[in-house]
């Protein structure tokens, strides 16, 4: 029997294999143009508000997929990009996408709950490529600890996450409000927290919230938060 970790990796690997076989542009499939437009608008606004480090800084994207979302935007702006994803197919695909476009990036197949291959690295910005809401239970705390370990002092962590509660009746039937978990096929699928609960979780994990931008949708809301790590003191 597969462990929970192995089952999670197998699931994402199968999805990316199907996407690549069917010539889809990225995880968002045919919705990629809309997703890319919304992402670039948001990142442009963050840059204009001086909430991103300067080009040339080191960026890590968690859940980078095939590299065609945040990693691509940052690479085109002149940042040093590193992306990690659970799926070997996604990582091979990302490397090919960047090579084809003649841009530089480092892509690693790794688990965001451990990030063993990044033991000695530090980043000016860590970007959640809509990865954190894919983690449930203790996985979330593990990932937050890795982010704190890898962020440089005064570095920024940008969280891009589902939030709120499901809007559609079908999803509400598979949502456990007490654990904030949305199930698919009887298995935990996404963490979907009310915004205030997500903010409390982030603060409890040792971060300070700098900005919050919520997009409201009929299915569930989506939040983009810029946070920094609280510095450890003798009273912590």
UniProtKB/TrEMBL annotation:
Record-annotated Methyltransferase domain positions: 59-155
Keywords per UniProt: Methyltransferase, Transferase
Gene3D superfamilies: Vaccinia Virus protein VP39
SUPFAM superfamilies listed in its UniProt record: S-adenosyl-L-methionine-dependent methyltransferases
Listed Pfam families: Methyltransf_25 (PF13649)
CDD domains: AdoMet_MTases (cd02440)
Entries under InterPro entries matching the protein: Methyltransf_25, SAM-dependent_MTases_sf
Source superkingdom: Bacteria
Any single biological process term in GO: methylation
MF terms in GO: methyltransferase activity
Name of the featured protein: Methyltransferase domain-containing protein
């Amino acid at each position: 029997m597969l462990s929970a970790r192995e089952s999670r990796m197998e699931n994402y690997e199968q999805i990316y294999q199907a996407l690549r076989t069917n010539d889809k542009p990225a995880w968002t499939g045919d919705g990629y143009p809309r997703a890319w437009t919304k992402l670039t608008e948001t990142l442009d606004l963050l840059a204009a508000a001086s909430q991103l480090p300067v080009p040339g800084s080191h960026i890590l994207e968690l859940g980078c997929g095939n590299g065609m979302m945040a990693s691509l935007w940052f690479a085109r702006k002149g940042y040093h990009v590193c992306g990690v994803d659970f799926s070997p197919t996604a990582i091979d695909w990302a490397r090919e996408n960047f090579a084809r476009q003649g841009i530089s990036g480092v892509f690693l197949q790794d688990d965001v709950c451990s990030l063993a291959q990044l033991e000695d690295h530090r980043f000016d910005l860590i970007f959640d490529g809509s990865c954190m809401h894919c983690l449930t239970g203790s996985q979330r705390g593990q990932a937050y600890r890795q982010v704190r370990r890898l962020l440089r002092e005064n570095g920024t962590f940008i969280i891009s996450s589902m939030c709120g509660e499901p809007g559609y009746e079908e999803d509400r039937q598979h949502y456990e409000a007490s654990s904030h978990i949305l199930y698919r096929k009887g298995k935990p699928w996404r963490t979907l927290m009310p915004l205030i609960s997500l903010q409390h979780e982030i603060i409890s994990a040792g971060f300070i919230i700098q900005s919050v931008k919520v997009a409201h949708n009929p299915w569930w809301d989506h939040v983009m938060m810029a946070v920094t790590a609280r510095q450890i003191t003798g009273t912590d």
